[in-house]
């Protein structure tokens, strides 16, 4: 029997050390994250929808998000953590989602306690949440239909995002753990890490904690780990780098009339061939 090409997310987490996860929207970005040293790749709903110039608002279907996550996983030697938004509907949608993602070789999914259709966490102020009981039921559903014991379900609370208190976030996360969540994700769009630190100070460690430090970028990984965080998702920096880099390159080529001025700052074609693993493919034809 051939051994799997990648470890499941649960075993990566068990291996210890901080698990650093980079957001991506296609296999190329995912492989670049792996090459940089990241332990896993986040198939970000923001990135995947932005890659199609669509809002991160439950517009793409589960099948489209799954296809994207599966493309990334096929190219990787590290696990994908699939951002599955709200689970794409109610309990039945969640059950279907877990079966489909697991069948495609995805070993970890994340669901958030917003209402379907959801809106990206950085849009607006008072996003509405599902009741604690209804979201706990989704977590319970997800855990009840997974076929491998290793499949990993992250319960993400948007309590802080929607203006609720740290106490409410804790109460929700406790309920999600009781429903079977393998980890909790505490999301915040505060400009500092104070809210998340307050949450961590009261968290009893019953499950690992995941954070997404987009709006508080100056929190060094060593301090994040010392505060009790197990998994850090750098969710959208890759996408933002692509936007800035492509914009600059295209504008510069158009402005200057030739490509000389950008040649030193863009990858050479040989680099692209390596990412395509061209030489391995050519052996098949030798
Ligand atoms: C994503 O990357 O799609 C996320 C994180 O869910 S956030 O954009 O902050 O909601
Ligand atoms: Mg998302």
Automatic annotation (TrEMBL):
<dbReference type="InterPro" id="IPR040442">
    <property type="entry name" value="Pyrv_kinase-like_dom_sf"/>
</dbReference>
<keyword id="KW-0456">Lyase</keyword>
<dbReference type="GO" id="GO:0016829">
    <property type="term" value="F:lyase activity"/>
</dbReference>
<protein>
    <submittedName>
        <fullName>Isocitrate lyase/phosphoenolpyruvate mutase family protein</fullName>
    </submittedName>
</protein>
<dbReference type="InterPro" id="IPR039556">
    <property type="entry name" value="ICL/PEPM"/>
</dbReference>
<dbReference type="Pfam" id="PF13714">
    <property type="entry name" value="PEP_mutase"/>
</dbReference>
<comment type="similarity">
    <text>Belongs to the isocitrate lyase/PEP mutase superfamily. PEP mutase family.</text>
</comment>
<dbReference type="InterPro" id="IPR015813">
    <property type="entry name" value="Pyrv/PenolPyrv_kinase-like_dom"/>
</dbReference>
